[in-house]
Amino acid sequence: MTTHDAPSPQRPDPWELPDVSDLVIGVLGGTGDQGRGLAYRLARAGQRVVIGSRAADRAAAVADEIGHGVEGADNAECARRGDVVIVAVPWEGHARTLSSLTAELAGKLVVDCVNPLGFDKRGAYALVPEEGSAAEQAQALLPDSRVTAAFHHLSAVLLKDPERERIETDVMVLGESREDCATVQAIAQLIPGMRGVFAGRLRNAHQVEALVANLISVNRRYRAHAGIRLTDI
């Protein structure tokens, strides 16, 4: 058989994702709206979830409110206990929080969902961190962690709504490792209606983070909770 006749290697199915059911998910900033909503949805799907806050008692109180077995701890303990740690802190505290947790997050898969935004009389607008994006700032501050970017475009209102069974949206996942991205995609797909979609390397996180400013404008104009749905996949 000539080289031209040799069968091409079969590409893996991009929708074949790993089993993540045994992973503990830590959520830094789990007492805020976005973090609380993600914790609620993942715990409701049967995942073990620990939320973090600067104050352990505050995290414990919010965990009790969320229910579904969610536990609360201070940020350092949350980072230690999580196999995968979602960063959902306000942009203003992003660098400070991560700088204080380099040891606890070493070797961990970190999922940054922080959107650097500014607000003025004309509405929301994207900020450009020195590193290029919040996710790239996280990678610079956490050289011993595996950083991905995901969960940027989710409505906290929908996440926290117990009457909403499904959230029909796609989660764009970016990172340097396909395996790590696949893990985050699988975590996203624990939530009914969501799809986790690989969307490129971490260097492309800025435009994904910045798109939230557009969604805020959409939501204000149409009184909606818009998300993102990618076509033809």
Automatic annotation (TrEMBL):
Taxonomic source organism: Streptomyces sedi
UniProt keyword terms in alphabetical order: Oxidoreductase
MF annotations from Gene Ontology: coenzyme F420 binding; cupric reductase (NADH) activity; ferric-chelate reductase (NADPH) activity; NADP binding; oxidoreductase activity, acting on NAD(P)H
Highest rank taxon of the organism: Bacteria
GO biological process: copper ion import; NADPH regeneration
A single cellular component GO annotation: plasma membrane
Cross-referenced InterPro entries: NAD(P)-bd_dom_sf, NpdG, P5C_Rdtase_cat_N, STEAP_metalloreductase
Start and end residues of each Pyrroline-5-carboxylate reductase catalytic N-terminal domain: 25-116
Name used for this protein in its record: NADPH-dependent F420 reductase
